[in-house]
Amino acid sequence: MKFLSTIIFFLVLSTVTAQQKVLTVDEFIQQVKQYHPIAKQANLLVEKAKAELLIAKGEFDPTIYFDASRKTLDEKNYYYYTNPELKIPMPIGNIKTGIEDNGGDRMSSELTPGKSSYFGFEIPLAKGLLIDKRRAALQQAKIFRNQSDQERLIVLNNLLFDAYSTYIQWLGTYQLVNIYNNYITVSKDRLRLIRIAAQNGDRSPMDTLEAFTQLQNIEMQQADANLKLMNAVLEVSNFLWNEKDSAIVLTANYIPQDNAAKFIKDDVLAETIVNTALQQNPTLKYYNFKIDALQVEQRLKKQNLLPTINAKANILNKDYAVFNGFNSAFIQNNYKWGIDFKFPIFLREGRGETRKAAIKIKDANYELNYKRQQTQTKIFAYFNEYLQLQKQVNLAQASLNNFNSLYKNELLKFSNGESSLFIVNSRENKVLEMQQKLTELKAKLYKSKCAIDWASGALN
Questions:
Q1: What is the number of H-type helices and E-type strands within the chain?
Q2: How far apart are CA 185 and CA 188, in angstroms?
Q3: CB of 136 closer than 8 Å to CB of 299
Q4: 101 Cβ partners below 8 Å, 6+ apart?
Q5: 250 band by pLDDT with thresholds 50, 70 and 90
Q6: Structural domains of the chain sorted by starting position, each given as residue range(s) with its CATH number in brackets
Q7: Are 238 and 179 in contact (CB under 8 A)?
Q8: Does 11 have pLDDT greater than 50?
Q9: Which residue of 105, 258, 270, 452 has the lowest C-beta tally within 10 Å?
């Protein structure tokens, strides 16, 4: 269907009589932002980071455990255990509570027979006190959530730069086609009048050939411009999608917004743009968040330099009412506690992990400094290009005005019989050449403006 629409578009492009519709820059860019597959993929980066954050928060979800087992052999009841437990993760350590129902002829002596209950905690006293894996994962997930938003902006910034460039190319070729169309109309009228004059003996037959040759020359240039316009329309169509994720082929009655003001840069200093970009550029923010995440990792790795000391304590009670009869005397006679201790003597793993984390941060800082300098250099380069193109556009406009004056003067002399058609055509070709040059320079000027915004990360 899309191929058929394209063929129909080619067939009607030069003969369409339907009322033309302007596809403005804002409408085009809004369509790209909302429906382009790459823009949607960029949004998925954020959704994925949100999912990762939800996973990290899941480490702090309360958990119910249930352990039940029974052994009977040769009509002997060895044991039966029924032990449900609730574990509540805390910022530091865990709270655990549960009930037990144990019995049997050969039950382990460590277990309490009958029904009992407990409530207690596990808490690290050294390694894991300030930060542990689950807290580090949560902090990093929050950072990655913010980082993914900057990554989305980077993708959009690149996408919109391509979209703006394609739109500008479409605008430039559209303007060229209109220029050639105007000159073909003039050349056809001139050829018709010269033929009449030649039939009346007022002009040489060679003038008719000269006028016809000029018309052919412009028609050849028009055909080339029409081909470029067709291809430019197809390139623009690559950026147009609808809400059903179907590509849209731009129809022939749509034309670009012929308004240079939309692309002209405000009169600001390059230093101002650079200072703003260094604070707001999504690429630089992305690396800042990357360093933040690595610093969290470094704090976690430093915990490996500390000994593992985990304290755990429970208050115990008969039946299923753990706080029944709760007082100081009760605690002194109904408790269970312990300490786990572990300390690697040489700390080689901890020192290696800490050193590795520091190297990652240093590497990321080097990369950030390079990106900052690269961003600054690009902005200054594109800004210099923009200023020079402004000068060239002004010079080209002045030259076009001068060539146009010479052309009109030559037409006047030709109508008075004081010039030849060859000179008129030469003047006309110069005007046409300068108009083409001016159109190309304006397109470059518009692109350089977009390039400044792209290097600043400000297109989105």
A1: 10, 8
A2: 5
A3: yes
A4: 80, 81, 82, 83, 114, 115
A5: confident
A6: 2-35+134-298+352-456 (1.20.1600.10), 65-90+93-127+309-342 (no CATH)
A7: no
A8: no
A9: 105
Instruction: Give the chain's radius of gyration (CA, Å).
Output: 39
Output the CA–CA distances (angstroms, integers) from residue 342 to 171, 262, 338, 353, in the order listed. Answer: 72, 68, 14, 18
Query: What's the average model confidence in pLDDT over 198-222?
Result: 89
Q: Which amino acid is at 172?
A: G
**The two structure tokens encoding residue 257:** 């917004």
Q: Which two tokens stand for residue 341?
A: 């201790």
Burial class (CB in 10 A: 0-12, 13-18, 19+), 313: middle
- Two structure tokens written together for 293: 């995440």
The pLDDT confidence band at residue 261, using thresholds 50, 70 and 90, is low
| Six-digit token string for 292 | 């933040």
Contact at 8 Å (CB) between 164 and 29? yes
Nearest to 233 by CA among 142, 171, 164: 171
The DSSP element (H or E) to which 62 belongs, if any, is none
Task: Give me 15's structure tokens.
Answer: 């003969």
- For 140, phi then psi, to 5°, come to -65, -35
User: pTM above the 0.90 mark?
Assistant: no
